[in-house]
Amino acid sequence: MAELPIKFDDSAAYERAMRRWSRAVAPIFLQWLAPPASARWLDVGCGVGVLAHTVLELGSPATVVGIDPEVAQIAQASRGPAAGRAAFQVADACRLPFADASFDIAAAALVLNFIAERSQAMAEMRRVTRGGGSVAAYVWDFAEELSPSGPLRRAMRRFGVDVPAIPGTAESRIEALRSCLSRQRSSESRRELSRSAWRTRTSKTSGKRRRQATAPRRRSSRP
Ligand SMILES: C[S@@+](CC[C@H](N)C(=O)[O-])C[C@H]1O[C@@H](n2cnc3c(N)ncnc32)[C@H](O)[C@@H]1O
User: Fold this and answer.
1) Could you identify the atom of ligand 1 that is nearest to the CA of residue 46?
2) What pLDDT digit, counting tens, does each position of 79-105 carry?
């Protein structure tokens, strides 16, 4: 079945149709995550800023940053109830403009299924989160039509309408999310293994060269 192309460039329409649902699910997520206070949060695909606002209300964060590639969503988030307390900026989850380990928690609310390069986005979330921090995400289960538009879509199908699929429907299943996460974990551990193998090799073979390279250079007595 064809996928319904969805753009998030109309923030007023998003507010009207989706905000109440985003608003209803965000506190449930926070309750489940039970985040520590004073955390540095990154809200990935923040849209109009619902999760960022919920974190400010319920999560006692140190800082909250929200990113989204859609200029209209960021503009709306910047005028919304989190304005002045959270920082919003245009950015893509697959190329996060932050240094490694900049955050304690990186969360993506109702976003991952809309990102084609999902593994890359998760790797980026992992990179910008400190060791021991949390990388977390939730999506509607579109595969089971467990989303706000699910009842309408099911009813339309009963009337014979060929309803296009939401992007990333198959990937919205819990099993697909789990396998994406475990692929991520195993590539992390492969990276860690090759890093430590490299460290062992270099310390065995090039200790002398490294000592030479790091020895303080003698100042010349000449001007
Ligand atoms: C369904 S909305 C969810 C918005 C918000 N997180 C919420 O809970 O209401 C999906 C959001 O993901 C954003 N998005 C799509 N592709 C993205 C990407 N590559 N990186 C970051 N955000 C993306 C969209 O612009 C949109 O604002």
Assistant:
1) 6
2) 999 999 999 999 999 999 999 999 999
DSSP-assigned letter for residue 186: H
What domains are defined for the chain? 11-195 (3.40.50.150)
Is residue 48 within 8 A of residue 21, CB to CB? The reply is no
Atom of ligand 1 nearest to the CA of 117: 19
DSSP for 122-160, written as a single string: HHHHHHHEEEEEEEEEE--BGGGTBSTTHHHHHHHHHTT
Cα separation, 140 vs 196, whole angstroms: 39
Distance between Cα 19 and ligand 1 center (Å): 12
pLDDT tens digits, residue range 5-62?
Answer: 788 988 888 888 888 999 999 999 999 999 999 999 999 999 999 999 999 999 999 9
The overall average pLDDT reported for the chain is 85
| Ligand 1 close to Cβ of residue 50 (< 6 A) | yes
pTM, two decimals, is: 0.83
> Which of 43, 54, 68 has most ligand 1 atoms within 8 Å of CB, for mutation?
68
- Got the DSSP string for 71-122? HHHHHHHHHSTTBTTBEEEE-BTTB--S-TT-EEEEEEES-GGG-TTHHHHH
